[in-house]
Design brief:
It comes from Rhodobacter ferrooxidans. The protein is an alpha/beta fold and 378 residues long. The protein contains 15 helices and 13 strands. It has helices at residues 10-26, 42-50, 53-56, 76-86, 109-114, 125-134, 151-164, 179-186, 200-206, 212-216, 229-244, 264-273, 304-308, 327-331, 363-377; strands spanning 35-41, 61-68, 91-95, 119-121, 139-146, 169-175, 195-199, 222-225, 250-252, 274-276, 279-282, 286-289, 293-295. The chain has a 5-stranded parallel beta sheet with strand order 2-1-7-8-9. The longest helix is centred in the first third of the chain and has 17 residues, at 10-26.
Length: 378
């Protein structure tokens, strides 16, 4: 594929790996005292394991898996509220496929669908809009989920519904932001992180400047990266070079896609439709100030929380994780997925306890798909 195969060249990978090893040795990185680099995005986690980068890089480089999987960080209380909405008479509940199997306290959306709820998987909020047009006698609710990557499409759909006066369409908004949880992690004195690989898709929308605080306030390097193996290897090298040179900057490895100041059309739609919540609950991280988005009052007619008096509008509900489930510790990089006592035992893709095992960006799903099943058996 044009512009993909070039970023999978094994000879170029060998050159990058050799330079990573040279710089890692120069800064004294060893297996006993590694450089901890957090890849924020779950898509990066899967790419690292898919291409075996964790095994190819110098032993003094350790990848830490961050909270950049929007399905994974969704608390169980919000899954419960999705099921509650889907169970309302006359509702067609629409969602991305990743969220279907995430367990709630009572059941998952897939189990609710099996029990008779009209729950449909869609590929875009525009699909949900079309369902609303075709079913004027039904309430169509779209599960708005994701970081800044998917936020603009939901915002544009709400704007379109408003223009059409499509009163039977609404969004259950669970959009969240990347910088705030990173600030929370950096504020944890027990979290040992030396640098970051930044999320390319998110940065395509918001640009690179929202990460300035990582370098300026906390003195940590961050490199916004693409998703091919050479992208990730070059980004690791860029982080290591910053450390070797005593620098802490925001660098953009993914400049072929990511503009410095983001996408102005997307940012304008986000600003028009959303405002910050005072706080939002994250699985594994708890309540984080200003980390979630809610629909502005001007679009309240298309806000499922307002329309159905559910969710944060009715008061937040905190639901504890299943006993023995270590999603929070995995998601914040404190342990690897295989260190969870339920990995491969009480938690498998067929019978998941936590979202990290079923999301296409979940760290546990990556470990399982690319060798974790064998590790669990051993």
């Amino acid at each position: 594929m044009k512009y993909a195969s070039e970023f999978r060249d094994p000879l170029a990978a060998k050159v990058l790996l050799a330079e990573i090893a040279r710089v890692a040795d120069a800064i004294g990185a060893t297996k006993a005292k590694p450089v901890h680099i957090m890849e924020i995005c779950g898509g990066h986690t899967h790419a690292i394991f898919r291409y075996g980068l964790d095994k190819l890089v110098h032993e003094g480089v350790e990848f830490i898996h961050g909270p950049g999987c929007p399905v994974c960080v969704l608390p169980m209380s919000r899954v419960d509220e999705c099921v509650q909405l889907a169970e309302l008479p006359g509702v067609i509940f629409t969602t991305f496929g990743d969220a279907m199997r995430v367990p709630g306290r009572r059941k998952s959306l897939l189990q609710a669908k099996a029990a008779g709820c009209d729950i449909r998987m869609v590929y875009s909020p525009l699909d949900a809009l079309e369902l609303a047009r075709r079913n004027p006698g039904r309430e169509v609710v779209f599960f708005g989920l994701g970081f800044e990557t998917t936020t603009p499409s939901t915002a544009l759909s709400i704007q379109q519904a408003a223009r059409e006066g499509l009163a039977n369409f609404s969004v259950f908004c669970n959009h969240i932001t990347v910088p705030e949880p990173i600030r929370a992690l950096l504020g944890d004195p027990d979290m040992l992180l030396d640098g970051f690989i930044g999320p390319g898709h998110v940065s395509m929308v918001i640009g690179t400047h929202p990460y300035d605080f990582i370098a300026q306030e906390f003195g940590k390097p961050i490199v916004v990266a693409g998703f091919e193996p050479l992208d990730l290897l070059q980004s690791v090298l860029m982080v290591l070079r910053q450390i070797a040179e005593g620098r802490a900057e925001v660098e953009n490895q993914y400049a072929r896609v990511v503009p410095e100041h983001g996408n102005p059309v997307s940012l304008a739609a986000i600003a028009d439709v959303y405002e910050r919540r005072p706080s939002f609950e994250w699985r594994g991280l708890g309540e984080i100030d200003a980390s979630g988005l809610k629909i502005r009052a001007k679009y309240a007619a298309w806000d499922a929380e307002e329309k159905f008096a559910i969710g944060y509008g009715a008061g937040p509900r905190v639901v504890d994780e299943p006993e023995g489930c270590a999603c929070g510790a995995v998601m914040t990089g404190r342990i690897k997925p295989t260190a969870c006592p339920q990995f491969g035992k009480g938690c498998t893709p067929e019978m998941p306890l936590g979202a990290l095992m079923v999301s296409s960006e979940g760290a546990c799903a990556a470990y399982w798909q690319y060798g974790g099943a064998r590790a669990a058996a051993e």
